[in-house]
Amino acid sequence: MKVENAERRETLTRQRVLEAAVELADRHGIESVSMRRLGQELGIEAMSLYTHVRNKDDLLDGMVEIVMSQVPAVDSREGWKQALRGAILGARGVLLRHPWTTDVIETRATPGPAMLRQYDTVMGILRGGGFSLDLTHHAIHMLGSRLLGFTRELFDDSPTLDAETARAMAEQLGPMYPHVAEMALGATHDGGLGGCDTNFEFELALDVILDGLERLRQSA
Amino acid sequence: MKVENAERRETLTRQRVLEAAVELADRHGIESVSMRRLGQELGIEAMSLYTHVRNKDDLLDGMVEIVMSQVPAVDSREGWKQALRGAILGARGVLLRHPWTTDVIETRATPGPAMLRQYDTVMGILRGGGFSLDLTHHAIHMLGSRLLGFTRELFDDSPTLDAETARAMAEQLGPMYPHVAEMALGATHDGGLGGCDTNFEFELALDVILDGLERLRQSA
DNA sequence: GACTCTATCCATACGCTGTAAGGACGTCAA
DNA sequence: TTGACGTCCTTACAGCGTATGGATAGAGTC
Lengths: 220, 220
What we know:
10 helices, mainly alpha, flat, DNA-binding, homodimer
């Protein structure tokens, strides 16, 4: 900036604002990302952010863009199934490092460039694998958010609850919801479900869908 | 209430508050359901609502409960696959009539009775169909929100856009995202995707998962 | 009939949100 | 030197959920 005003901070850019917002969301959760709080984090007033960002939606769009652009390019030398698996798990890896992103993505009106790229990649893999346009379209719907590497967990079923509280919960649920109770109990049995590995569940579901797609393609 | 004060409205109950909230959400969208607006709708002040409802989260919980309790009981005389299909499509029918509900469900911390009932129903069908506890657990994860009758559409891909704008959009996307562009064009081709039937996509994906579950059960 | 108890409802206020409007100031080109 | 532009700030507004405390009315009890 200027030599004779060394204490003046580097002048802001849209990029720096977005990065600060991502970092703030990573540290304190997406709900802490308000214009005032973000300004505070950057040492400026809330309204000054509007120089770099159209409005809050634009800010959120940019945050998603920053995260999604970290998704690695896919290795396309493999068969379609492996390539697709790789593309999806690649996206998942990124989103796991910024868990707030999934919530924000679901509120976006239109996809940004990085999300379009992921869609294009997935579609390209399928088309290249011999899927018709129709079937590719079905596949996109089938995969849904999984294609971006996540599924929304409606509620924790892998809470770190000890066998004691699990039993208490099961006893309360038992009369009305016997199968839910059974499941709650089973989740703490050693050798049983034991913890519920979300990544394992994700990949299992993914493979079921991929196998289903393969069958649909063959029967078409 | 009182005869000599006929103009005084019926005194409110939690049930009437919740019903009014559901109706308001149906008419003007969930974002219009604020305490002030809901109070206005009922002819009382915002703070008076707190007599019948602990806080806004409690209100939303109750709204979900009202909707979900309309899900019809399942016909359990069929095989597990048909029964499961029926249970899920039954829930879907209800949620389609109150589209805001899916958004609210995804923000709930814990499931209410009606949602527990749906979970218990689904688990019961699977267990009765010979699924192990483990496999039932996997199935719940695989189905995810589909088990309640919905999947989040990340963005409209069946917008009512004429062939003209579709072509313009495709031309703009083409260079960067060829497959997305191809899909956008295909969506308006007559005889092609033509509109994208969300219900069809839902059932197709559901059947792929159900078939996958059947295979997993057989191989176990 | 006078008493208290309780349920219902209201008025006011606080801190938070996003952002519209308008002004101050430093930098740079003509 | 002047004018334009980019960056930032100040003030203000309407909306949100809700804490607090008070008004009113009906029911139950003496």
